[in-house]
């Protein structure tokens, strides 16, 4: 083991390889408030990469209904239980920041053990704690879809006599779109005895060299998100490849510019923005994650430093969201509930172009609305959001207030 810095947990931690970050890290932001679970992303990925024999159960991209759904079933509950170890490893956070700008510990300090440290403490003779799901747990990619949690029993026969209002609904669920997080410290990479898994230096995408893989399934066991999947037909493991030919700009549609992945570009609900984490504060992904901190990592306490981030849902219980996204979840929801001018403009850029947006500009417009949110004055401006390509080319330009079009009387829709 060596010590590496994990900014999501605010401290150094044990990991079997030295810290090595790419120049730009493949990353994405998902807005869970917009997801409608249409599964278009799931089928776009499936039809592109997973149509061969032995891949029938493989869903590199899936959309789960929380709190009961999961693929494989119970993946998060089981991993959290293993990590907690019957309460001997309290998964607690200290929200004290250790530096003035909160760059080293933006979410506070995680005081428990990560999956790597827990394996070391318990002398498990492996790099991370984990388990291999049973065949039964891989059966359905969207099991318990739309199954809501409630203060009452969920098997009641009559219509529930309860009413929900924000900020937290009494009866709730939300959709969680998932794919490989292309972690900075992947559990799968640490676990592989063949060193068949590697992280690309140019963009941080995690891939498997299938010529080296021998199907030991250590990666399946020790990936806490269960996004590496064993294919019995070929006896090797496969995983999301982040549509790397598109990321490399090899698709002619974008004229050689880096392009969004299939699951991102197919999103009907416009919940996704895919790009790179870098040092540019005008990069929309970097701004959402590192500067405004409205998009949070999924289970940062695992210690893998995942690079897919989520804007948390407004209506779910805060305690549930806190254990899922970390201690900054209330602040993130507050920022989304009453968005700043900059956030409102950036949200308009979600899923507007297949070409990856590297930088954004905002042209200020007139104030069109004013109200009070949570007792505070809030103003709405019709600004213009502009997305730029890597070479500075303008890709998209649109206003915050979407235009409306009225059909002429002679062409009215009769339906």
UniProtKB/TrEMBL annotation:
<keyword id="KW-0411">Iron-sulfur</keyword>
<dbReference type="GO" id="GO:0009061">
    <property type="term" value="P:anaerobic respiration"/>
</dbReference>
<keyword id="KW-0004">4Fe-4S</keyword>
<dbReference type="GO" id="GO:0009055">
    <property type="term" value="F:electron transfer activity"/>
</dbReference>
<dbReference type="GO" id="GO:0016020">
    <property type="term" value="C:membrane"/>
</dbReference>
<feature type="domain" description="4Fe-4S ferredoxin-type">
    <location>
        <begin position="204"/>
        <end position="233"/>
    </location>
</feature>
<dbReference type="Pfam" id="PF13247">
    <property type="entry name" value="Fer4_11"/>
</dbReference>
<keyword id="KW-0677">Repeat</keyword>
<dbReference type="InterPro" id="IPR017896">
    <property type="entry name" value="4Fe4S_Fe-S-bd"/>
</dbReference>
<keyword id="KW-0408">Iron</keyword>
<dbReference type="GO" id="GO:0030313">
    <property type="term" value="C:cell envelope"/>
</dbReference>
<keyword id="KW-0249">Electron transport</keyword>
<keyword id="KW-0479">Metal-binding</keyword>
<dbReference type="GO" id="GO:0051539">
    <property type="term" value="F:4 iron, 4 sulfur cluster binding"/>
</dbReference>
<keyword id="KW-0813">Transport</keyword>
<protein>
    <submittedName>
        <fullName>Putative nitrate reductase (NarH)</fullName>
    </submittedName>
</protein>
<dbReference type="GO" id="GO:0046872">
    <property type="term" value="F:metal ion binding"/>
</dbReference>
């Amino acid at each position: 083991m060596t010590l590496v810095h994990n900014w999501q947990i605010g401290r150094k931690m044990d990991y079997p390889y030295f810290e090595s970050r790419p120049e730009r890290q493949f990353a994405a932001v998902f807005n869970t408030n917009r997801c409608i679970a249409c599964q278009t992303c799931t089928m776009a990925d499936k039809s592109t990469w997973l149509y061969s024999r032995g891949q029938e159960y493989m869903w590199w991209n899936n959309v789960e209904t929380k709190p009961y759904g999961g693929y494989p079933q119970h993946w998060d509950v089981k991993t959290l239980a293993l990590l907690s170890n019957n309460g001997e490893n309290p998964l607690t956070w200290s929200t004290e920041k250790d530096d003035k700008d909160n760059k080293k510990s933006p979410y506070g300090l995680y005081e428990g053990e990560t999956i790597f440290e827990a394996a070391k403490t318990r002398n498990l003779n492996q790099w991370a704690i984990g388990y291999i799901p049973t065949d039964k747990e891989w059966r359905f990619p969207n099991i318990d879809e739309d199954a809501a949690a409630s203060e009452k029993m969920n098997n009641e026969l009559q219509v529930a006599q309860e009413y929900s209002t924000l900020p937290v609904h009494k009866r709730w669920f939300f959709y969680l779109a998932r794919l490989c997080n292309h972690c900075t410290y992947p559990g799968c990479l640490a676990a592989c005895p063949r060193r068949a898994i590697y992280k690309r230096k140019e963009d941080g995408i995690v891939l498997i060299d299938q010529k080296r893989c021998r199907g030991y399934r250590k990666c399946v066991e020790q990936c806490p998100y269960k996004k590496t999947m064993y294919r019995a037909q070929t006896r090797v493991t496969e995983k999301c490849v982040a549509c790397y030919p598109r990321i490399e700009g090899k698709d002619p549609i974008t004229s050689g510019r880096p392009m969004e992945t299939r699951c991102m570009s197919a999103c009907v609900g416009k919940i996704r923005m895919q790009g790179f984490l870098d040092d540019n504060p005008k990069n929309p992904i970097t701004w959402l994650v590192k500067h405004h901190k409205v998009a949070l990592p999924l289970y940062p306490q695992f210690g893998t430093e995942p690079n897919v981030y989520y804007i948390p849902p407004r209506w779910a219980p805060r305690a549930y969201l806190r254990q899922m996204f970390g201690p900054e979840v209330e602040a993130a929801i507050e920022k989304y509930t009453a968005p700043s001018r900059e956030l409102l403009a950036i949200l308009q850029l979600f899923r507007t172009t297949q070409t990856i947006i590297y930088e954004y500009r905002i042209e200020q417009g007139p104030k069109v609305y004013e109200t009070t949110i949570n007792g505070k004055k809030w103003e709405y401006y019709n600004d213009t959001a502009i997305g730029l390509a890597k070479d500075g080319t303008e890709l998209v330009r649109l206003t915050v207030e979407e235009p409306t079009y009225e059909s002429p009387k002679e062409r009215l829709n009769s339906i």
